[in-house]
Amino acid sequence: MNIYLRENPHDQISKFLGYIQQSARIKILLIIDQSETCVCHIESILGIRQAAISQHLMSLRKAGLVTTRRQGRHIYYRLNNPEILVLLFQIGHSLGISESAMKQYSLRPYPGCSCPQCKPGPEHDQVC
To answer: Which contacts of 76-81 are long-range, i.e. CB under 8 A and separated by 24 or more positions?
Structure first.
């Protein structure tokens, strides 16, 4: 369901930008990139508490930007529409931000991260 259907185009864009206005949310979108990502991976990269990350993810879900999938004890997030990355990279480019600087968040495995994606195996079966 598109939450923007009954609004005029200007209000749609404004509402959309409101959902991603915080830098942590933009970083989360860049972290997820083209693959699924668990909360503990996002936590390792951002260095902020899981509760704060969950609030950001809830806003991104409300906006229809991310969806979830559960696998055992882990919840994985993925972009509902990966074209949002094109927009973010275009904005970054127009501001003179290099693509490599923006892609630093999507590194896998991420140095120091012990999530199931970075260090697979039963010995790293932590709760995300």
So the answer is: 76/36, 76/37, 76/38, 77/32, 77/36, 77/37, 77/38, 77/39, 77/42, 78/32, 78/35, 78/36, 78/37, 79/29, 79/32, 79/33, 79/34
Q: Evaluate whether the domain defined by 33-109 bears CATH number 3.90.1150.10.
A: no
Rounded Cα distance between 23 and 46, Å, is: 11
pLDDT in tens, 34-70: 889 999 899 999 999 999 999 999 999 988 999 999 9
pLDDT at residue 2 tops 70: no
